[in-house]
From TrEMBL:
Name listed for the protein in its UniProt record: Amidase domain-containing protein
SUPFAM superfamilies: Amidase signature (AS) enzymes
Residues of the Amidase domain: 18-395
One protein family per Pfam: Amidase
Highest taxon in the source lineage: Bacteria
C-alpha cells in the first residue's frame, strides 16, 4: 500500500489476515507502534529502543481479538517517541499528515493511527490514551475516538508509559464502526437500562475556549439538551480545593489538575523506564528529552503527595458523575496548531490540553470524542465523559446521537 500520508513506520506496511468470519470481516485496521505484532519489533517511536529489542513472539491480546473477529491488519503506524507527546511530530520519523487540516499537526501520540484513518488508508486503528492521545488526534483529525475506562481492555503485549493512566483506544470515521469495535473488544453490547439520562456540562472546560470555538460547539450542546433535558452545570476542578488537598491559589483551576497529572504520571514513567534511559541514553527529540529530564526531578515527596491527591480527586469524580449521566466538555482547547508553530506556543497549547484531558486520566473514566464542529475549516471535537464502566453506553449513545444529527443535516435546506 502506498503511504501518501507518512502515517506508517518505515517497513510498516505488513499485513495479517483476520479470521474467515466475524463481525469485523472486511474491515482493515492499523496498529500504533506500541502494540506487539508477531514477528516484528515494537519500536516505540525511537530507533535506539527498536535496535535493542527482539521481534515479538505473539500479537498483543487486543490485536489478536480483532483478528479473531475477522479484521485485517494493514500496517503499523508512527507514534510520538515513547508515546510521550500530544503533538504528533516524531523527531526521527517525521509528522504524519492531517488530511482534515492540511499544514497542521495531527496530534499525538497516536499520530499515525489518526492520520491513516482520517485519510481513508484503513477503516479504524488502534491508538492509546494516557494523557489525551486518542482525544486530541481525534479532535484535530475529525475522528471518533474512545479512551475507555482504565483497565477495561487488556494491555497485554502493549508497551507501557504509565500503567495506571495507560488505556487501549481506537479511532474510526463513523460512530457505528467505533461502537462495533468496542462491542468486539468488550464482548458485550450496551445495557439499554443504563443509557445516559442526565447531562452535565463542565463550564470550566468550556471557559478555556475562545469565542469561535465556543460558538462552533454551542449548537451541538443544545442538541444534547434536546435529547437529555436541561443540563446541570458543574466544574471539573474541585470547588473545595482544601477538601482534596489543593492549595486554592496554587491550583489555578483546571491547570492544577494538569500539574497533578504531570507529577503522578511523570513519576510512573521514570519508575518504568528511568533505569533504561539512564543506561542507554537514547537519542531523543528535544521536546521529549526535555520532558524526560524534568520527570527525573520529581521528588519522592511530590510523588507521594500527588498519589494522595489523585485518590481524593478520583473519589470526588465518582460522586460528581452518577450512573446514567454524562459530562460534556470540549475534546481540545482549539483546532490543531500549524506544523511550523513556534515551540513555545506549542508548549503553552500543550498545557491547555492537559488542563482539559487530565480529569478522565486521573479518575480513570471513559471519554469519547465526536467530530461535530469546525472552526476556520478545521475539525474540533466535542467529548462525553461517563462514569466508570459506561464505555458501551457512551459508544451507543454517540452512535445514536450522531446518526440523528446526520439525518437532520441532510434534511436542512441550508
Amino acid at each position: 500500500m502506498f503511504d501518501s500520508l507518512g502515517a506508517f513506520v518505515p517497513g510498516g506496511n505488513m499485513t495479517f489476515e483476520g479470521a474467515e468470519k466475524g463481525p469485523l470481516k472486511g474491515f482493515g485496521f492499523a496498529v500504533k507502534d506500541i502494540y506487539d505484532l508477531e514477528g516484528y519489533v515494537t519500536g516505540y517511536g525511537n530507533p535506539d529502543w527498536q535496535s535493542r529489542r527482539r521481534p515479538s513472539k505473539k500479537h498483543a491480546a487486543v490485536v489478536q481479538k480483532l483478528l479473531d473477529a475477522g479484521a485485517m491488519i494493514i500496517g503499523k503506524t508512527i507514534t510520538d517517541e515513547f508515546a510521550s507527546s500530544l503533538d504528533g511530530q516524531n523527531y526521527h520519523y517525521g509528522t504524519p499528515a492531517n488530511p482534515e487540516a492540511p499544514g497542521r499537526i495531527p496530534g499525538g501520540s497516536s499520530s499515525g493511527s489518526a492520520s491513516a484513518v482520517a485519510g481513508g488508508l484503513v477503516d479504524f486503528a488502534l491508538g492509546s490514551d494516557t494523557g489525551g492521545s486518542i482525544r486530541i488526534p481525534g479532535s484535530y483529525c475529525g475522528l471518533f475516538g474512545l479512551r475507555p475506562t482504565h483497565d477495561r481492555i487488556s494491555k497485554e503485549g502493549v508497551l507501557p508509559l504509565a500503567d495506571s493512566f495507560d488505556t487501549v483506544g481506537w479511532f474510526a470515521r463513523d460512530a457505528w464502526l467505533l461502537n462495533l469495535v468496542g462491542e468486539v473488544l468488550m464482548d458485550a453490547k450496551a445495557d439499554q437500562e443504563a443509557m445516559p439520562e442526565k447531562l452535565l456540562v463542565a463550564v470550566d472546560a468550556f471557559d478555556m475556549l475562545d469565542e469561535k470555538s465556543r460558538a462552533a460547539l454551542k449548537p451541538h450542546l443544545e442538541r444534547l439538551e434536546q435529547r437529555l433535558g436541561k443540563a446541570e452545570y458543574i466544574t471539573l476542578n474541585p470547588e473545595n480545593y482544601h477538601a482534596i488537598g489543593f492549595d486554592a491559589q496554587a491550583s489555578q483551576g483546571l491547570q492544577g489538575l494538569a500539574t497533578l497529572f504531570q507529577i503522578a504520571q511523570g513519576r510512573e514513567v521514570m519508575d518504568t523506564h528511568g533505569a533504561w534511559l539512564d543506561r542507554v541514553k537514547p537519542k531523543m527529540g528535544p521536546e521529549i528529552q526535555q520532558r524526560m529530564d524534568w520527570r527525573k526531578t520529581i521528588t519522592d515527596e511530590q510523588a507521594s503527595d500527588a498519589l494522595e491527591k489523585r485518590a481524593l480527586f478520583k473519589a470526588r469524580m465518582k460522586a460528581l458523575i452518577p450512573n446514567k449521566s454524562i459530562v460534556c466538555l470540549p475534546s481540545a482547547p482549539g483546532i490543531a496548531p500549524r506544523i511550523n508553530e513556534d515551540p513555545d506556543v506549542l508548549n503553552a497549547h500543550r498545557s491547555k490540553i492537559l488542563s482539559l484531558t487530565s480529569a478522565s486520566g486521573l479518575a480513570g473514566n471513559p471519554q469519547i470524542t465526536m467530530p461535530l464542529a469546525t472552526v476556520d475549516g478545521c475539525p474540533l471535537g466535542l467529548s462525553l465523559m461517563g462514569p466508570h464502566g459506561s464505555d458501551l453506553e457512551l459508544l451507543a449513545f454517540a452512535e445514536s446521537f450522531c446518526s440523528t444529527e446526520d439525518e437532520q443535516q441532510s434534511l436542512s435546506p441550508f
